[in-house]
Amino acid sequence: MKLSEQSKVQLVCVTGGVITVGIARFAYTPMLPEMAEDIGLTETVAGFLAAANYAGYLCGALLISFMHNLQLKIKVYRYGLMAAVATTLCMAATTNQWVWYLLRYVSGLSSAAGVLLGAGLLMHWLRNHQQKAELGIFFSSLGIGIVLTAITAQLIKIEYTWDQQWLIYGFLALILIIPVLFWFPDFSKSTMGTQQTAHKDTQPLPSKQFFLTLQSAYFCAGFGYVVTATFLIAIVELLPGMKGLGWVVWLLVGIAAAPGCWLWDIYVRKVGLWSSLLQAYILNMVSTALLLFDPSTMVIFISAVLYGCSFIGIVSMTLAMVGRLYPENASRSMSHLTFSYGLAQVIAPALVGIMADKSESFTQGLVITVIVMLVGIALLMRAVVILKQGNTLLLKNS
């Protein structure tokens, strides 16, 4: 069966997301216990390695915000794909902590390229070819990556050493990059007619107050995302009868996230984007709140599923909406939002980790996370009001 050009473009961008985020970033989560057991990796070093990766992602988002040239974005996106493969392979080549910090930092840069430039380039292609500007399929790459790393980790953790496991992840990324490079589209090619171009040029931009409010709400969403992503498996492993089931919970998150994006796209067509986005925020808050109760196995599984489908929906719908509101430079607007999302990923784990160390419990940190998500819900509702007051047409287009 011959693939259409649109299918090839989407496959390229999805696979790029799996490589740069699913493997280069998420493989680190199941690798931590293996590295701790084989070479005595301490929690302190593990935390700094995670911080280095988040810092790279943050810097990548900031750098991308200054990129205006389409050809430069395409070139950096390609480099990001190759860096993801190289940094994953090189993790196996040394035990020098400073080299690891550098590799995880560069891996974070590649993740920013894969997500922000990949989403922006896909949005650009869809708009220029008069297709629906939806990114649900693209962001399924995050869920696919989680599923891939969870299953791979379970298959290789017994027979292979920690460095061999990193090589396996690296070769997997190397295999996946082949169809990406082979089918890489000409993103600069356009079939947009003069009528659509004129419409794009005359579309007003939202107010700065709206963007800052949305950015603050997205910061809160980043806080809720990273606390669960960082500590969910730790919480699971501490529960009676749940030892060794952390990978199952991580797998459930990925299974829920993978189809979650395009399911949210379908839901958006029925109830509207802002209503759907608000509900995703609420579900994300509920997924964290469930962990505050006496969690049974079923409650943990429900929390994992709600978390997987909600966090991916928030990211997908927010960035797709911003891409439609700021069509001239979608990647720049996405990167500004992602910078605040990434900032939360640096602050939240450190804060919750310190609180957990002092209290020997995650309860206080989870309470803080629920409160932050409630603030995010309020800010999101305020953003809708500001956008509606500014221009009704913008609200419709978003």
From TrEMBL:
The chain crosses the membrane at residues 9-28, 48-67, 79-99, 105-123, 135-154, 166-184, 217-239, 245-264, 271-293, 299-326, 338-356, 362-387. The keyword tRNA processing does not apply. Keywords: Membrane, Transmembrane, Transmembrane helix. The keyword Membrane applies. One of its GO terms (cellular component) is plasma membrane. SUPFAM superfamilies: MFS general substrate transporter. Residues 10-393 form the Major facilitator superfamily (MFS) profile domain. One of its GO terms (molecular function) is transmembrane transporter activity. It comes from the Bacteria. This is Predicted arabinose efflux permease, MFS family. It comes from Neptunomonas antarctica.
